[in-house]
From TrEMBL:
InterPro entries, A to Z: Rab-GAP-TBC_dom (IPR000195), Rab-GAP_TBC_sf (IPR035969), Rab_GAP_TBC_domain (IPR050302)
Ranges for domain Rab-GAP TBC: 1-174
MF (Gene Ontology): GTPase activator activity; small GTPase binding
Transmembrane residue ranges: none
Keywords for the protein's UniProt record, in alphabetical order: Coiled coil
Coiled coil: 226-257
Protein name per the record: Rab-GAP TBC domain-containing protein
Length: 261
């Protein structure tokens, strides 16, 4: 912010032309979906909170045209705006997306988030193989619960106090906290989940993971007690980044073949 005084206001003023039509359309779709039960965001698209949310999201889409806008960012900014003014929320978003998370986390194909879900799955298979087998038999992949956790940085999952404690750790310690917290949730709930016999009951229980996580101290204690080296996380990311890249190239090649038929 100090290095770019006035940048946010300039981006807001030019966002009507600087923000792509696709990003603008998706932002408008997602505005009414952002915490509709919260008093700050009730009342339609022209309430002060909604106007601030729109400006921040459009300004960021104008600033970072590679990312533009991605679903999930509305919830992140929506939380930020409950505590800071919109310019501070804009710079917090910049810091999160450009300095803390991998740069491709919110690209149009979510490749960075997809990589982290595969890393997370590998960690779960290593630590909770029995539970993962049970989930697989019930048709519940890691993305069923992990995608919302990671793409919205737990803002749609935890009660507010717990989520803020987790965010403090992310801004202080970095993105490895995503895995620590995710593993902590599973660690806390594994016995309960394994005791469930019916697939539909397991579906409901997994869907509700974290919704009532009120003991942030215990969650973080469990997460930080797990052995996890940054180098190991980055090695796994590199492995799955190559896998995701190859899959993307194969999809593009198949699409080109169909187009040439």
């Amino acid at each position: 912010k100090a290095a770019n005084p006035g940048l946010y206001r300039r981006l807001v003023e030019t966002s009507a032309t600087g923000c792509s039509p696709d990003a603008m359309a998706q932002i408008e779709l997602d505005l009414p979906r952002t915490f509709p039960e919260h008093s700050q965001y009730r009342g339609g698209a022209d309430t002060p909170a909604m106007l601030s949310l729109r400006r921040v999201l459009m300004a960021y889409a104008s600033r970072n045209k590679v990312v533009g806008y991605c679903q999930g960012m509305n919830f992140i900014v929506g939380v930020m705006l409950l505590f800071v003014d919109e310019e501070r929320a804009f710079w917090l978003l910049c810091s999160l997306l450009e300095d803390i998370l991998p740069p491709d986390y919110y690209t149009h194909d979510l490749s960075g988030c997809n990589v982290d879900l595969r890393v997370f799955k590998q960690m779960l298979l290593k630590r909770h193989s029995k539970l993962m087998k049970r989930c697989e038999e019930a048709g519940l992949g890691v993305e069923f619960f992990g995608l919302e956790w990671f793409i919205a940085i737990f803002s749609k999952t935890f009660p507010m106090e717990t989520m803020l404690r987790v965010w403090d750790c992310i801004f202080l310690e970095g993105d490895k906290i995503l895995f620590r917290v995710g593993l902590g949730i599973i660690e806390d709930n594994e016995k309960k989940l394994l005791a469930i016999k019916e697939p539909h009951e397991l579906f409901q229980a997994v869907q509700g993971l974290g919704r009532t996580e009120l003991d942030a101290d215990n969650l973080l204690k469990v997460g930080f007690s797990l052995r996890m080296k940054r180098s190991q996380v980055e090695d796994l990311r590199q492995q799955y980044r190559e896998e995701v890249r190859r899959e993307r190239q194969e999809r593009l090649a198949k699409k080109a073949e169909v187009g040439n038929c």
